[in-house]
Amino acid sequence: MLLFVALISFLIFRFVGNPVENLMGQEATLAQRAALEEALGLNDPIHIQYFDFLWKAVRFDFGNSYRGALPVAELIVSRLPATLELALTSAVFAVIFGVFMGVYTAINRGSVITNFILSSSLIGVSLPTFLIGVLLIWLFSVELNWLPSFGRGEVVDLGWWKTGFLSESGLKSLVLPAITLGLYQMTLIMRLTRSEMLEVLRQDYIRLARALGLTNKAVYFFHALPNILIPVITIGGLQLGSVIAFAIITETVFQWPGVGLLFINAVYFVDIPVMSAYLLLVGFAFVLINLIVDLSYFFIDPRLRDSELKDEA
Amino acid sequence: MERFFRSDFFYHFRHAPVAIVSFVTIILIILAAIFANFIAPTNPFDPASLNLMNGFTPPLEANEFTGERFLLGTDDQGRDLFSTILYGLRISLFVGLMAVLLAMVMGVLLGLIAGFLGGWIDSVIMRFADIQMTFPSILVAMLIYGVARGILPPEVRYEMSIVVLIISIGLSEWVPFARTVRGSTLVEKEKEYVTAAKMIGLTRQQIMLRHILPNVLSPVLVIATITFALAIIAEATLSFLGVGVPSTKPSLGTLIRIGQDFLFSGEWWILLFPAVTLLALALSINLFGDWLRDILNPKLK
Amino acid sequence: MIEPLLEIKNLSVSLKKRDNISVAVDDLSLNLYPGEILGLVGESGAGKSMTGSAILGLIEPPLYISAGTISLQGSSIMEAPETIRGSQISMIFQDPLVSLNPLKTIGEQLIKTIKTHFNISKAEALERSKKLLSDVGIEPERIDAYPHTFSGGMRQRVVIALALAPEPSVIIADEPTTALDVSVQAQILNLLKQLCTERGTSIILITHDMGVISETTDRVAVLYSGRLVEIGKTSDVLQRPQHPYTAGLVASTPNIDPNSFEKKLFQIPGAMPDIDDVPDGCAFHPRCEHARDKCHTHRPPLFDARVSCWLLEKPGGTL
């Protein structure tokens, strides 16, 4: 999977836009061009170029950005903390509220609050992320003037990581973007939690638990909740991946200095090395998340643990 | 027709107020977009009709210089917002529709081929679909958009931007169609009538298109409805990010981006009206699609 | 006369769909006496399981109890069924493979159940759980095992242990052996019977299997289309069925008899009606070879506290 993504990103890197033209400009002579093509290895067989690309990617060498001629890796590393902090905060927000509201609406079917949550969730899915962001800015920054509408606020430099978690303005700046980014995932997680919960509550072991006189609390939290964790973690994990992608939109709305903003500018100015490096990065993030999701199954489900042990024996 | 009105489908429709309201909203919005020339007081794409002096007129109030009044106010360039929204809707709906058509044709064909032929073709198509599905479609659309702009020479980028946009969104949404059609095809091709068609010597293309295709279309309709909403949102998002349609021909997303710039200076109407229109459109299509899915195939959830 | 332990009077369970209401359990009256095993028999859809769920107040929309009373030891349990669940009446379901929470050890599930009903320490609850496991024939050492490591029969033993844990006076067993291998069925039934006899617990055994009825129950109630058609001592009902439907059921039960291999098994013609399409009069009349005019229009009452059929109207009338 990662190799495939790398291939796409290589093809974009190699064939879209002309690196020679971009590096040398229009005035270069044919001889100069040929020399550069040779130096860049553009005359090697294609699979050699691919391996070369991979090998460089492993060492975080993605070449230089067309604009500003900075190394792409350096650009990305400087932007990454902002995006990761934003993504993490909104994912935590989405999971906590999503699961809580999903469980609540499944247990209290037909109540006024449930119907309210469900109908607003439909609006939530239909609202594009950018519109949520703009509306939040309007309400909380323009009208109420409570929270900042752009940037990260003051960041504290930890040497290898610039964090916005440690200053008041940093935390304040985080609120609106995190909600914007998390709201869509939250509605998805909520709807999923709700439908899984309703499904689990139909199971025979729940009926048995009720017939044995277990309290509602025990039925919901002892029996039902652990059983919805697997699907919720699976989808939640995949959603975390799309959080990274939706961060592009949120970062643009809030001028959040993360990799998403870097990417959208790259698309705008056709900065191919940045685009291809970003693609690789996202691909890598997805693979990593899938791995974590798979591993978490083993902590939750004893059936999987056992079947795996048997396989090894 | 009479059969339609007595059908179960129609019974459910009459008893679902949400479905009726959302359906009527969709129809009204589409009609408004089609007949924009007749409804709109001005043509916002015609520079000659614009008067910069009219800029930033609040809704229903008279402009301080020209004294003109506008139902929903004007934007920074003095364009009547009501007219601009109607024309913007046209672009949004057009891009959305074309993108869905592209995604549908591509997805249905690939799904049919994968399901009917099986073997390595099936593996290649579905593997590719799986990988694409891991990435959110908006990211895929942006990437295709960026690549397309890279391939096109700079001179034509501007004129081609709508076509590029349609292709980007279309290519990013084909997977659900392909998956569903492949699934139904796998079921259908085991049935008697396909065997019979093979026996009388029809070619594979004939069987796929004339016999299997009509039988897998009902879920495709549901997906098309939901994808339509997604495509409109995707178009608005890309235009909002500034990588969509050019701002001389603004779609709803472009208008919202322009509106955001003027939020802090108090010109709220430039943002609000396009935003409400977009929300109404996306919400109605989603609600209608949800209802359609529940009625046509309860298992599709 | 002995007072009934559990008394069901004129119970109806209805189903609301679109604008129609159909009746799934129709005017059912039953008594359960202390220590007895009462069988509920009938085809699937006859309302047996629904009756069981109704007793525990586990009926969920669109189904609802539309009429009748259920009382335990003379006092109604319909207002607060949750107070008697487990402690007074507990239940065993058909499929042991899905009756246990897959993510919890059997010990955790037993302890949770015990601690819900008794105010005792965790150590004591653990001791009781081990005792229960050994009572149902499972080594107490396996208390920390997960359900998936047990076979179907073993899991049903765990379920029985769970049902007995709150020390109820009634157990409703809903097709407890249907999902099990034939060789295991008898073991489970005997175990259930033995444990309940020891504890003086009554059983309502829901099944469609006449063989199970004849081997296990003291009395049997036959349901058809949500209605009680015949009730009585198991030996009476099986040997001298009064209702044509009961007679058909008995005749259509395979009998392992070396002399009857040549015989063809009896079939009741037709099928039970859907609950939204129950015919007027006696629900069984379209399939009944003895049906008279009255059967088409009038619903028969229960004659002699035994059988609901117009053939029994005149004193002394029989099949």
List the helices and strands and how they pair.
The complex is a heterotrimer of chains A (313), B (301) and C (319).
Chain A: H1 2-15, H2 19-24, H3 30-40, H4 46-58, H5 72-107, H6 112-126, H7 129-143, E1 156-157, E2 162-163, H8 168-201, H9 204-211, H10 216-254, H11 259-268, H12 272-300, H13 302-312
Antiparallel strand pairs in A: 1-2
Helix pairs in contact in A: 1-12, 5-6, 5-8, 5-10, 6-8, 7-8, 7-10, 8-10, 9-10, 10-11, 10-12, 11-12
Chain B: H1 2-6, H2 8-14, H3 17-34, H4 36-39, H5 81-117, H6 119-134, H7 137-151, H8 154-172, H9 175-188, H10 192-199, H11 204-212, H12 217-241, H13 252-261, H14 269-296
Chain C: E1 6-17, E2 20-32, E3 37-41, H1 48-55, E4 63-72, E5 75-76, E6 89-92, H2 106-117, H3 122-135, H4 152-164, E7 170-174, H5 182-199, E8 202-207, H6 210-216, E9 219-224, E10 227-233, H7 234-239, H8 244-251, H9 293-297
Helix pairs in contact in C: 2-3, 3-4, 4-5
Mean pLDDT of chain A: 76
Overall geometry of chain B comes to globular
Protein chain pair with the most extensive contact, residues per chain: A-B, 41 and 39 residues
> Could you name the CATH topology of chain B?
MetI-like fold
What's the overall geometry of chain A?
globular
What CATH first level of chain B would be assigned? Mainly Alpha
Considering DSSP H and I runs of 4 or more, what fraction of the residues of chain A is helical? over 70%
The largest sheet of chain B, given as strand count, sense and whether it forms a barrel, is:
none
Report the count of strand segments of chain B. Answer: 0
Q: In total, how many domains does the architecture of chain B comprise?
A: 1
**Architecture of chain B, CATH level 2?**
Orthogonal Bundle
Largest beta sheet of chain A: what is the strand line-up?
1-2
Structural class given helices, strands, pairing of chain A?
Answer: mainly alpha
What amount of the residues of chain B lies in strands? under 5%
Explain what you see.
- The complex is a heterotrimer of chains A (313), B (301) and C (319).
- Chain A is mainly α and 313 residues long.
- Chain A contains 13 helices and 2 strands.
- The mean pLDDT of chain A is 76.
- Chain B has a single domain, classed as Orthogonal Bundle (MetI-like fold), CATH 1.10.3720.
- Chain B has helices spanning 2-6, 8-14, 17-34, 36-39, 81-117, 119-134, 137-151, 154-172, 175-188, 192-199, 204-212, 217-241, 252-261, 269-296.
- In chain B, 45% of the residues are buried.
- The mean pLDDT of chain B is 77.
- Chain C has one domain (6-88, 166-312): Rossmann fold.
- Chain C is built from 9 helices and 10 strands.
- The model of chain C has no long low-confidence stretch (mean pLDDT 84).
- Chains in contact: A-B, A-C.
- Chains A and B meet through helix 1, helix 6, helix 7, helix 10 and helix 11 of A and helix 7, helix 12, helix 13 and helix 14 of B.
